[in-house]
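> call design_seq(struct)
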């Protein structure tokens, strides 16, 4: 599906969850000098203009990262993952920009590491290539950009030659089949790359509860069948009640689904790095409180 463009949603509460966890994983991988490979299956354009009419139309950044950025910095001192995220994104927000996952990955990874990005949307891939030009240099990771289906890329290129590494999977979930595909691909990749860290972002959607539950259970059961000692985490950020948020029409005259929509999101992690879950859960409670107050 090529209709999805993240600029409509960049900087929303889901991005704060996803990207604060992503930074923690990259920092964990960086603790060892040995090189690693990072895959991003649905890369998008890497940088988003928050003054773009599409971003302004949904107002998700305003209710998300911009609202979060108004937090007193002292209030974050007990939440190191959020404080680190706050410091990183603040420099972009000053220029009305939001950094997507490839931008974060390219900033935190090292010269011995390899970043593999995949994007299939024709305009997004061009934006991605242009934005990644800013990350060339002797202290930057090797960046390989594929105009390619992310699922096919991941199946073809794992396990990486480095052995160490991780993958961020952040599909659009536009159809019910996407949930089945996510489970199928992750199970297959984990089976042949059992030590790879797999980060799956997923939405909390009231009308997709059964699909989401089935997807997560299928993945967990298959992963534990491969290795029952695998560390699995499921980090959830709820910002509203299930029936409180309605879909926003993105295009003129577009029909709107009256079903309640995104009321939060989750990060499902396979081979969770040491102490990541403990470090992230407490900040999630803080974030839920920030956004629940905003939505009341």
């Amino acid at each position: 599906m090529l209709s999805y463009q993240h600029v409509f949603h960049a900087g929303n509460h889901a991005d704060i969850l996803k990207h604060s966890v992503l930074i923690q994983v990259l920092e964990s991988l960086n603790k060892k000098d040995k090189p690693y490979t990072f895959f991003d299956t649905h890369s998008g354009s890497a940088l988003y203009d928050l003054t773009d009419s599409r971003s302004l139309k949904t107002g998700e950044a305003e209710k998300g990262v911009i609202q979060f950025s108004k937090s007193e910095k002292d209030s974050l001192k007990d939440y190191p993952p959020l404080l680190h995220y706050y410091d990183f994104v603040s420099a972009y927000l000053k220029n009305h920009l939001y950094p997507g996952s490839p931008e974060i990955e390219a900033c935190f990874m090292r010269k011995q590491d390899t970043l593999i990005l995949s994007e299939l949307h024709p305009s997004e891939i061009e934006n991605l290539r242009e934005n990644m030009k800013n990350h060339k240099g002797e202290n930057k990771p090797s960046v390989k950009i594929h105009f390619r289906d992310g699922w096919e890329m991941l199946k073809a290129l794992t396990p990486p030659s480095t052995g160490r590494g991780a993958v961020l999977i952040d599909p659009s979930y536009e159809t019910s089949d996407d949930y089945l595909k996510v489970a199928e691909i992750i199970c297959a990749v984990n089976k042949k790359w059992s030590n790879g860290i797999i980060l799956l972002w997923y939405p909390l959607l009231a009308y997709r509860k059964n699909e989401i539950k089935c997807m997560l259970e299928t993945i967990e059961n298959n992963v534990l069948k491969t290795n029952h000692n695998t560390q699995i985490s499921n980090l959830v950020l709820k910002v509203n009640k299930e029936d409180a948020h309605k879909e926003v029409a993105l295009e003129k005259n577009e029909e709107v689904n009256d079903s309640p929509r995104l009321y939060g999101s989750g990060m499902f992690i396979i081979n969770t790095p040491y102490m990541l879950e403990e470090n992230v859960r407490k900040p999630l409670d803080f974030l839920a409180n920030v956004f629940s107050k905003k939505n009341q």
